Amino acid sequence: MGNAYPNFSKHDSVERSSNSILKNYLKRAADATTEELIAIIMEVVNEPDLFHFGELLDLPNLQIIQGDAKLSKYYSLLEIFAFGTYSDYVAQKEHLPNFSDCMLEKIRLLSLISLTSGINTISYDILLEKLELKSFTELENLIISAFYKNLIMGRMDSSNKTLCVSYAVSRDLRREDIPILIEKMKTWSGQCQYFYNNVIDETDSADALKPCRFEAINKIFEKIQKLENDIGNEEQKPTDQ
């Protein structure tokens, strides 16, 4: 199978679309009964174009479900789709509602986002293992789906069995992970400031050298002009008979 490329002009469309879809579910869930809430959760995890769920988990009536021994599995289900991976599903599936084919593909797509975030390349073998897929064809079909949903960007290197990644959409963030993200942003900001200062220093140095460079260039042109004049004068002298 050849390379597949994402639509770079729509790299953030998935987040806008996902947020728009989520708002409708949030309105319905805000005043829903327990039975209605469970139905909404199952709709959400089967919704093919929804990939962010964190705001639903923050609803007060969802917190009530979390504390119910019989219903907590629906809260856990939503948590896995918000923060987890296919491996988390496998580890907990005995305590979760049954997964439809749509849910299985969706948790694999979400896992693919997590596996490709912050890296440049990842081998097909690792992806096959983590996503529990049986063939390279199944894997490449999943990757193509992720491309066209704008979940990740990059290209497939089929000959080397490698996925090259240039971008992966963000997933929901746990509250306890926020301080870690802030520290990463501070580090990134410091690096940007460092490179900015270096550019300014280099620019100032270049500006300071400009007069010297212009003077040197002018001297070279003067020497060339003098040499041309000398050659012209020599050519005009009468030759000895």
Summary, kept brief:
The protein is mostly helical and about 240 residues long. About 65% of the residues lie in helices and about 5% in strands.
Tell me the layout of helices and strands:
Layout: H1 13-30, H2 34-46, H3 54-57, H4 60-66, H5 72-83, H6 86-92, H7 101-116, E1 121-123, H8 124-131, H9 136-148, E2 152-157, E3 162-168, H10 178-236
Protein name: COP9 signalosome complex subunit 7b
Domain PCI: 1-170
Family: Belongs to the CSN7/EIF3M family. CSN7 subfamily.
Beta-strand content: 5-15%
| CATH third-level topology of the largest domain | Serine Threonine Protein Phosphatase 5, Tetratricopeptide repeat
Unreliable residue runs: 1-9
In total, how many domains does the architecture comprise? 2
Large-scale geometry = elongated
Beta strand count = 3
CATH architecture of the largest domain: Alpha Horseshoe
String of helices and strands: HHHHHHHEHHEEH
Distance between the termini: 85 Å
What's the story with the biggest beta sheet?
Answer: 3 strands, antiparallel
Structural class: mainly alpha
Mean pLDDT: 83
- What is the count of helical runs? 10
Helix content bin:
55-70%
Write out the strand line-up for the largest beta sheet, numbering strands in chain order: 1-3-2
- The CATH class of the largest domain turns out to be Mainly Alpha
Rg (C-alpha, Å): 31 Å
What do these coordinates show?
The chain is mostly helical and 241 residues long. It folds into 2 domains: 161 residues, Serine Threonine Protein Phosphatase 5, Tetratricopeptide repeat; 58 residues. Helices cover 65% and strands 7% of the residues. Strands 1-3-2 form a 3-stranded antiparallel sheet. It is elongated, with a radius of gyration of 31 Å.
